[in-house]
Amino acid sequence: MRFPFDPSLRHHLFIAVGLFLWVFVFLFFTEPLDIKELYFDEKLLYLPVYSLVASLGYLLLLPLQSWLYIYNARVWKLSSELLMLFAFSLLGLIMVRLVYLFVVVPYEPNPYSLSYFIKSIYIPALLVVLPIVEAGRYGLGRYLEKREEEQKITIAGSGNYEGFRLAWNQLIMISSADNYVEVSYTEDNRVKKHLIRNTLSAVASDLPQLLRVHRSYLINPDHYKYINSENGKFKITMIHDLQCSVSKTYLSKVKDVLNFTTN
Questions:
Q1: Are 185 and 173 in contact (CB under 8 A)?
Q2: pLDDT per residue as tens digits for the range 4-30
Q3: Taking CA atoms, which of 85, 153, 208, 217 is between 20 and 30 Å from 111?
Q4: Would you call 102 exposed, middle or buried from its count of C-beta atoms within 10 A (0-12, 13-18, 19+)?
């Protein structure tokens, strides 16, 4: 099951900064962990340490997040999101416990036991902090999805026939197939095909950013890899090693757009 996700590390830095500020405000006004016994200047000294730990814990998990995203073929699943939240909670427990023992009460002979610390302090705090983290992550993912949806192109069907919407960077090429056009595109890092009732000329007119290389082929020039010739016949290789012919009629324009030379 897919889950809204923004893979941009820069955007997750914003979440880490927001987490720092939220934890500081939360601790300052709720005063767990014997904070109520601290003077005002001591709060300003110790509370940023807890805030920094929460923010740093989130940042330390970003390599795991990137690995999960790549491992799942750049698809973010609900299971990956739940794993990230669990890892954040576990790492947070370890780091906060160490701060409590070695920074807040380093000389206290009877600090809170681990079980009491988890049950009465950490879990209540986590139930306040975790929804904020998840709200930020979910919000970034939904915003990215909305932005990508707005940037999608539509390959229209003729008459009342249904068209097809996809992101520009998903589209590889379009070929003619009798009274249809066949759209080759990527999804979840795999090549897929979709038939639409229309003519290639109509599609070329609607989407001038596509490059006509043959009377039967339009390509997305962003996904061009290389061109080769054999016995005077030219072929273009696209990503995922999809190939199409280049006719002499369009060869000059293809050379100009794709910036290559031929003998």
A1: no
A2: 999 999 999 999 999 999 988 887 777
A3: 85
A4: exposed
Q: How far apart are CA 53 and CA 154, in angstroms?
A: 47
Strand order in the sheet with 224-230: 224-230, 233-238, 243-246
Q: What angle do CA 112, 113, 117 make, to 5 degrees?
A: 70
Residue type, 237: T
Q: Write the pLDDT tens digit of every residue in 162-184.
A: 999 999 999 999 999 888 999 99
Sequence-ordered list of residues with C-beta below 8 angstroms from that of 171, at least 6 positions apart, any chain: 153, 183, 184, 185, 220, 223
Which domains can be identified in the chain, with CATH numbers? 9-150 (no CATH), 153-258 (2.40.50.1020)
The residue among 59, 54, 84, 53 whose CA lies nearest residue 9 is 59
